[in-house]
Known about the structure:
Blueprint: E1 3-4, E2 7-8, H1 12-34, H2 41-44, H3 48-65, H4 77-101, H5 111-137, E3 141-146, H6 150-161, E4 167-173
Parallel strand pairs: 3-4
Antiparallel strand pairs: 1-2
Helix pairs in contact: 1-3, 1-5, 3-4, 4-5
Amino acid sequence: MISINGYRSSPGFLFGLIDGLLILIGVVGGFYLRFLGHSDFIFRVNHFVLKIMLIVVVNQVVFYYFDLYDSKTFRERKKMAILLLGSLGVSSIFLAVIYYLIPFLTLGRGIFAISLFFILIFTFSWRVIYSFALKAWVPKEKILIIGTGELAKKVKSEILDNGYEDFEIVGFIDESGDKIGRRV
């Protein structure tokens, strides 16, 4: 989470930036592996930067529509992996249509498949590392809820069910001492 003037922002901007870099590295890695380590492929490929930027933009837009920048998706790795696979499939379809309509943007034989593999590995690994780091290093903000009525229960369920991992409910305060030690 990025903190600006005391307000926490969503990790979406950070994820967008890092995803863009990882997609870029994945595509360059695909080119590098396809040309077996010859680094002069950058000079041999026409419109190299345009081709890479197209892949980065299309993947990031599809990641956004698959809610991969939402912090709720980090709770379940299986769901995140399925969303990543689905988003890469959809972005592949979009890119195939673009390549059909504008043939000079095509990457070359085998490069796109290798790049997709790298993009999947890099983006999934980044998300897993981020979720582990968030749980391990970021202290949780402690919350004491005033009341034990329906609204207090609703606040508790909202915090626990909707992916607010930054908060820890430490207890409830009630007007009467009748509910001491009981679960709310």
